[in-house]
Amino acid sequence: MTAKSAKTRPASEIEISVLVPVMNESGNIAPLVDEICAALAGRSFEIIYVDDASNDDSPAELAQTAARVPQLRILRHEARAGQSAAIRSALLASRGRLIGVLDGDGQNVPADFPALEAALVAQCPSGGEAVGMAAGIRAKRQDNQARLLASRAARWIRRTLLADTHPDSGCGIKVLHRSLFLQLPFFNHMHRFMPSLVRRHGGLVIGVDVAHRPRVRGTSKYRILDRLLVGISDIFGVIWLLRRAPRQGRVTELAPTANTDGTSS
Ligand SMILES: Nc1nc2c(ncn2[C@@H]2O[C@H](COP(=O)(O)OP(=O)(O)O)[C@@H](O)[C@H]2O)c(=O)[nH]1
Ligand SMILES: [Mg+2]
Q: What is the pLDDT of residues 17-75, one digit of tens each?
């Protein structure tokens, strides 16, 4: 392999960092890494997997894949900390100007990254001041009826209580500016509220239709009722965060004013 390893590549060279949280996703890792590489071929990118203390073959599969994919970096949590914490660990280690995120179970399709990125760049051109997030909307969602129903309930609650008009906040695939992501408030399960949190920070949220596949290997890590119950307490937290949003608008640094004797004050 002649390509420089992602670990040794200078930060300024990396255009996009793709973050993937995994917990017991053995069998799903190598194929997804290959798909991410294919989607970003010709670009300067890094892929950061965070293994959230998996106890299956995920660590071995990650190590084997990293041995042949120089763009792949692996972080491991010593103790299980959850999906949002895993995404945050990867974010803090990332160096790209843009961040891509997707689920590690293969349900999101990496080939959607270029369209998400194009939508974001069209609305927030580089060099411009606007920041934002292009967030996937699963047009044909491949989940069972109970899960679809729970998502509909969650969407209604978010729209009613948070004025979150994004139709699919639970969709895992997104592209956003790293500088924006770093400034969002962090809490466990925050990944379900990204559109509200981005708007709270004055960022644009751009919805983009994406593909969705059924899970073919492994099992879902969430039980529907647990997710809804945790979601209810999170909703109150997010309502509070939205009420307390900073409202200073754009911040400009003023040039020093010259005194009459020519010195600056
Ligand atoms: N790091 C980490 N990732 C998790 C955890 N729970 C789920 N994930 C990952 O988050 C993604 C979505 O989880 P999944 O179980 O497919 O959720 P579902 O599609 O909503 O049923 C997958 O990549 C999981 O491996 C966790 O506790 N920690
Ligand atoms: Mg899934």
A: 999 999 999 999 999 999 999 999 999 999 999 999 999 999 999 999 999 999 999 99
Q: Which of 33, 84, 103 to mutate to test the pocket of ligand 1 (most atoms within 8 A of CB)?
A: 103
Strand partners, 207: 135
What amino acid is encoded at 58 in this protein? S
Report d(CA 191, CA 99) in Å as an integer.
14
Helix (H, G, I), strand (E, B) or coil at 261: coil
Could you identify the residue written with the tokens 């009459």? 260
Residues with CB under 6 A from ligand 1: 21-23, 25, 50, 52, 80, 82-83, 86, 103-105, 107, 172, 220-222
- CA nearest ligand 1 atom 7, residue: 221
Give the pLDDT of residue 223: 75
Domains of the chain (ranges; CATH) run: 11-243 (3.90.550.10)
Task: Flag whether pLDDT at 245 surpasses 90.
Answer: yes
Residue 86 alpha carbon, nearest atom of ligand 1: 1
Mutate to test the pocket of ligand 1, among 83, 84, 91, 173 (most ligand atoms within 8 A of CB): 83
| Residues sharing a CB contact under 8 Å with residue 248, sequence separation 6 or more, in sequence order | none
- Indicate the pTM of the whole model: 0.90
Q: How far is the CA of 210 from the centre of ligand 2 (A)?
A: 14
> pLDDT tens, 164-192?
999 999 999 999 999 999 999 999 999 99
Q: Please, what's the largest Cα pairwise distance for the chain?
A: 76
Structure tokens at 172: 């895992």
Give exposure, 103-117, as e/b (b: 16+ Cβ within 10 Å): bbbbbbbbebbeebb
